[in-house]
Amino acid sequence: MQNFITIVMNSLKSMSVTAVIDILVVAFIFYKGYMLIKETRAEQLLKGIAFIIILIPISSILNLSMLYFILSKTLTIGIISVVIIFQPEIRRALEHLGRSAFEDKHGLVDKEQRNIYVNAVSNLAETKTGALIAIEQGTGLGEIISSGTIIDAKITANLLENIFVVNTPLHDGATIIGKDRIVASGCVLPLTNNQEINKKLGTRHRAGIGLSEISDALVIIVSEETGTISLAINGRLTRNYDKDRLRSILLKIMDHREEKNVKTAGKKVKTWITGIINRK
């Protein structure tokens, strides 16, 4: 035991700053990767792969040649299968990484827009008119927009309410809002593959969650059965919003993202000033 401690201490003493940074970066990548797959299908699959990796050297030591052959071939094929099967999760992870690197691009919800959304959604909820509204943020929704009808109109509560009137051409789909414009309506959203969500939720809710899983859009959903107002953000659905609570949560989101933007802008200014000083 004493020899082991001595070896560890000598290794730590001989470790350079670069090596420490290298270890921290790798640890951070593994941590973020785990947080992205936590409570998803990929988590269970990775546990199975880890089990196979542990069994391979054990089967080799015990001379279980057939088991070793099967496990090693399974692992080779399995790695390729992971990339194919979990393409959506890999895409979501890369998009999350991209959003983290460029957070200053968020299209924030200002006070006037927030009141328009709250008033329109509250009126839709009172009449139990189903609605699906996606507010574009940092991730572009060009593919989603192209699946619907371009409107490109100023945001008003009356227009939002009229879009979702039953039996009108654009009511059965999502309305996409970008900056201060209603960009398109009747858009088709990807459905979530999450099997753990409430089975009572219909296609409208599953579509809202699905879009929030692959983008940072804010998705407001009104149930046509109950008039319940829900909000989908980052793959998570929260329900039972009233007028005041919806206004409050949109305000918190706006303030939080504005704070992030200020910090990002401050870092950019600091870097710019540092660059000028260094050139001098």
What's this entry about, in short?
The protein has helices at 2-13, 17-37, 41-61, 65-85, 87-101, 111-126, 142-145, 157-163, 203-214, 243-279, and strands at residues 131-135, 149-154, 174-178, 181-187, 218-222, 229-233, 236-241. It has 280 residues and is an alpha+beta fold.
* Biggest pleated-sheet summary: 7 strands, mixed
* Proportion of residues in extended strands: 5-15%
Mind telling me the C-alpha Rg?
25 Å
Count the E strands. 7
Provide the helix percentage. Answer: 55-70%
**Separation of termini?**
56 Å
Q: Which spans have pLDDT < 50 for at least 5 consecutive residues?
A: 103-108, 276-280
Task: Kindly describe this structure.
This protein has ten helices and seven strands. With about 280 residues, it is α+β, with helices and mostly antiparallel strands. A seven-stranded mixed beta sheet has the order 2-4-3-1-5-6-7, with helices on both faces. The protein is elongated.
